[in-house]
Design goal:
The complex is a heterodimer of chains A (about 400) and B (about 375).
Chain A lengths: L6 H17 L8 H13 L18 H13 L8 H14 L2 H12 L5 E4 L15 E4 L3 E12 L6 E7 L10 E7 L5 E6 L8 E12 L3 E2 L5 H11 L5 H21 L1 E2 L2 E2 L4 H29 L7 H24 L17 E2 L5 E2 L1 H7 L10 H12 L15
Parallel strand pairs in A: 1-4
Antiparallel strand pairs in A: 2-3, 3-7, 4-5, 5-8, 6-7, 9-10, 11-12
Helix pairs in contact in A: 1-3, 3-7, 4-5, 4-6, 7-8, 7-9, 8-9, 9-10, 9-11
Chain B lengths: L6 H17 L2 H8 L7 H9 L18 H14 L5 H15 L2 H13 L4 E3 L16 E5 L2 E12 L6 E8 L2 E7 L6 E6 L8 E11 L4 E2 L5 H35 L3 E2 L2 E2 L4 H30 L4 H27 L10 H12 L5 H15 L1
Parallel strand pairs in B: 1-4
Antiparallel strand pairs in B: 2-3, 3-7, 4-5, 5-8, 6-7, 9-10
Helix pairs in contact in B: 1-4, 4-7, 5-6, 5-7, 7-8, 7-9, 7-10, 8-9, 9-10, 9-11
The chains are: A alpha+beta (about 400), B alpha+beta (about 375).
Bound molecules: flavin-adenine dinucleotide.
The site of flavin-adenine dinucleotide (FAD) has 17 residues of chain A, from strand 1, strand 3 and helix 11.
Chain lengths: ~400, ~375
């Protein structure tokens, strides 16, 4: 057990920090085009697709190096790259399950943001029970014809391509008839309608597919094996950003303490109130525990072990922590915490958001409700932990074993 | 960066578990609950032979020269077994102040005696204010001849009734100082008190001008504060390791029960209310594991954040262990509420450690001070 970083890791961190100091944009990119420019710069610096094989534009880097880069970006409040789903989910899926042609065709363009991606999994009636999805892909000889509706599609509006799960065989048990595809979003059969989120911004969408076309070359893996692929994809949503997430929380936390020193209640600064001190003390302890957890996960990844169901524990822990943290922040800031505009400048209430932009506590608070829903809700994680780690008996479920 | 145990550490953990599985079964724990001293000499001797009692001391004093991670591993196993005895008291509360601040003569005299099991020590850290902060200590030390006279009341002194010497912090003309006091000596009176955790023994210590020689002073006049703080941090982490062990044992029992107990024609583990509870308990246990071993490593390595890591550890584990041990009772239903069933041993152990060496609230205040100056 040695929780010091190795000299190589320390040196690498320094190198990344220097690069960021030299290359950080003066003002944060606002438009998609500006974001793509910054994205491209990150790519050229060697900081995107770090774990992907070199021959497709990746870096073949160690998990620790990936974590250090993400962490340094969080420290520098660097804007995030765009194409998050391409980098985080679609790319890794193609790396693992795609064929040679698909790797050559798609991976580099994800890294350069020439092609933007979204994830077409959830449907109005298939969320946690994703395997019940109904969108169909029918074999038309030279292509597949897709019909159905997807929902909660993040980034759907700007996406050129989507990673799609669709049913290719309605007659077999539900987990067996699903296939994974890469589908062009730029075609007449695909209609995208933005959905406004509780934060007020429209970041996810509904996607309607009417006789949409998927070429045969864009089927990922074997016919009917999409469910297994989807399950590995969900695993990618955790892991490499572990340290960066905590550094982001820490930056917000220090701002909260700063605000608590300035805000007055009952004639004295909030930071002098014992109850506020207790809440802040608890949150810092919880936050640090999440950092220790991140180090444990990194230890595993560095040894080449996959956290497996252990990833459910990590995700449950940090996403629930984020909610507690933001609730405490709101309790401390009172109405100031709810402002989305017009906060007194001297209170310095802005915070770094997850995507490397300045935002408000109100936004952070609202956004904290998302983490325990997407990528497997907390309840689903607890089911996984119970069954797969603790070995508790499986729930009797209406759908077990039988056909849909 | 490596957050996993070395092969040697795993070996140590396994051997500790094997010994306690054999010699510290619940029957033994229960027998000791009714015992006058509260612990068994044969097991104590066995632990001495295996080198546990001198684990963190240098080899020249009969120790094993190991670190806090190893010590935490032992404590976790002891929590798991609800081991009754003055291990933490003697090795940590007694050993560390002497190791950190003792004179050569004091080290020669006491460390080998602790390591061999010949002597048992403890420390009298709490007073009426129940304040863990050394700054709050009111017991006085007045010069008397070439020695000192100590006056004051100490509460909740662990295992004092079987201790050969107690480390007693007292305020003298030069400030807070630490003294080695014979609890059976003139001017000292011990009164055992009984807590709900019968595997832990506490006494009240009254010092009424108790005389000690000049050689009883540990760490020089006015030099007690720093030694005490370092010792408290180590004790807080070792106590947390014990709570972690108690919590893990409780979780194991809860999960085991959920796999065999049937109601409404199903195993209770199929009910989400039970399964989700167990998942949350595991999350708390794993988080506690992270907190304990991070802090143990940080203290041993002298990491920059060592002091705050100890407070994070104690504040986190104090509450999470209580929660996990309590929820294990809930998962068991009525049988979990019986004296015969062993769950209450771990529940009570966790509860008694929760209030020692600073409770969650105390440590959160330390954390708040730290972040307030850092932000
Ligand atoms: C911000 C955000 C972005 C998203 N982006 C995308 C995206 O890009 N692409 C995409 O495909 N999807 C995306 N999603 C969708 C997300 O994956 C789903 O919301 C999630 O899978 C939950 O499904 P649902 O919303 O249908 O809720 P439901 O599954 O209907 O769940 C409702 C409630 O029931 C509980 N529940 C369900 N099943 C069980 C069970 N077996 N045991 C106990 N409790 C249960 C849930 O935990 C939840 O509390 C996004 C969601 C959010 C919030």
């Amino acid at each position: 057990m040695d929780l010091n970083y190795s000299p190589e890791d320390v040196a690498y961190r320094k190198q990344v920090r220097t690069w960021l100091e030299r290359n950080l944009p003066f003002s944060p990119p606002r438009t998609l085009e500006e974001r793509k420019v910054w994205h491209r710069k990150l790519y050229e610096g060697g900081f995107l697709g770090m774990g992907w094989p070199k021959e497709y534009g990746g870096q073949g880097a160690r998990p620790m190096e990936q974590a250090i880069v993400a962490d340094e970006m969080a420290h520098a409040a660097a804007p995030a790259p765009t194409n998050g789903l391409g980098l985080g989910i679609v790319g890794p899926t193609i790396v693992v399950h795609g064929n040679e042609w698909q790797k050559k065709r798609y991976l580099r363009k994800i890294l350069t943001a020439e092609e933007m991606w979204c994830q077409l999994y959830s449907e109005p009636n298939s969320g946690s029970d994703l395997a019940s999805l109904k969108t169909s892909a029918e074999d038309k000889g030279d292509h597949f014809m897709v019909n159905g509706q997807k929902i909660w599609t993040s980034g759907g509006k700007v996406a050129d391509w989507g990673l799609l799960l669709a049913r290719t065989d309605p007659k077999v048990p539900k987990h067996k008839g699903i296939t994974c595809f890469l589908m062009s979003m730029r075609q007449p059969g695909v209609e995208v309608r933005p959905l406004k989120q509780i934060t007020g911004s429209a970041e996810f969408c509904e996607v309607f597919m009417t006789n949409a076309r998927v070429e045969k070359e864009n089927q990922i893996g074997k016919l009917g094996e999409g469910w297994a692929i989807a399950n590995t994809t969900l695993g990618y949503e955790r892991g490499g950003r572990s340290l960066a997430r905590i550094s982001g929380y820490a930056a917000q936390y220090h701002r909260l303490v700063g605000a608590a020193k300035k805000l007055m209640r009952n004639g004295r600064p909030l930071m002098e109130s014992p109850t506020v001190r207790q809440r802040l003390g608890k949150i810092w302890a919880d936050l640090e525990v999440e950092r220790y957890n991140a180090l444990r996960v990194l230890t595993q990844l560095e040894k080449g072990e996959h956290p497996g169901a252990g990833g459910s524990l990590t995700k449950l822990s940090y996403s629930e922590f984020e909610k507690r943290f933001m609730e405490v922040a709101q309790e401390i800031l009172g109405p100031y915490g709810q402002l989305t505009d017009g906060a007194p400048a001297e209170l310095a209430l802005e915070i770094d958001t997850a995507v490397g932009e300045m935002g408000t506590w109100a936004y952070g608070f609202l956004w904290s409700r998302a983490g325990t829903i997407y990528a497997g809700s907390s309840e689903i994680q607890k089911n996984v932990i119970g069954e797969r780690i603790l070995g508790l008996p499986k729930e009797s479920r209406a759908d077990r074993g039988g056909a849909r | 960066m490596n957050f996993s145990f070395s092969d040697d550490q795993v070996l140590l953990k396994n051997s500790v578990r094997a010994l306690l599985d054999e010699h510290c079964k619940p029957e033994h724990v229960r027998a000791m609950m009714d015992d006058k001293t509260g612990y068994g000499e044969p097991l104590w001797g066995e632990m001495a032979k295996l080198g546990w009692l001198g684990l963190p001391f240098p080899e020249q004093y009969g120790g094993a020269g190991l670190g806090l991670v190893e010590l935490a591993l032992i404590h976790e196993e002891m929590g798991r077994a609800a081991y009754p005895g003055p291990f933490l008291a003697s090795v940590v509360l007694g050993g560390f102040p002497i190791l950190l601040g003792g004179s050569a003569a004091q080290k020669e005299k006491w460390l080998p005696a602790i390591a061999s099991g010949r002597a048992r020590l403890s420390a009298a850290l709490q007073e009426d204010r129940l304040d863990c902060d050394p700054a709050g200590i009111t017991t006085t030390a007045a010069r008397a001849g070439d020695g000192w006279a100590l006056t004051g009341v100490k509460r909740f002194v662990p295992w004092a009734h079987v201790a050969d010497a107690l480390l007693v912090p007292a305020r003298g003309p030069e400030g807070l100082s630490l003294f080695l006091v014979d609890p059976k000596g003139a001017g000292a009176a011990l009164k055992p008190v009984t807590g709900m955790d019968l595997t832990t023994r506490w006494s009240e210590l009254r010092l009424d001008g108790a005389r000690v020689g000049a050689d009883a002073l540990v760490g020089g006049a006015g030099g007690g504060g720093a030694i005490l703080e370092s010792t408290l941090r180590r004790a807080a982490v070792c106590a947390s390791a014990e709570m972690l062990g108690a919590a893990r044992r409780s979780l194991d029992m809860a999960v085991g029960y959920a796999k065999v107990r049937e109601q409404f024609g199903q195993l209770i583990g199929t009910f989400q209310a039970i399964r989700h509870k167990c998942a949350e308990m595991l999350m708390e246990v794993e988080n506690s594991h992270s907190a304990v071993y991070y802090a143990a490593w940080a203290l041993e390595a002298g990491a920059e954040d060592a002091a705050i890591a100890a407070s994070i550890c104690k504040s986190y584990v104090s509450e999470s262990a209580r929660k996990v041990c309590g929820e294990a009772i809930q998962v068991h239903g009525g049988i979990g509420f019986t004296w015969e069933y062993d769950l209450h041993l771990y529940f009570k152990r966790a509860k008694s450690l929760e209030v020692q060496f600073g409770d969650a609230e105390y440590h959160r205040e330390l954390i708040a001070r730290h972040v307030s100056s850092a932000s």
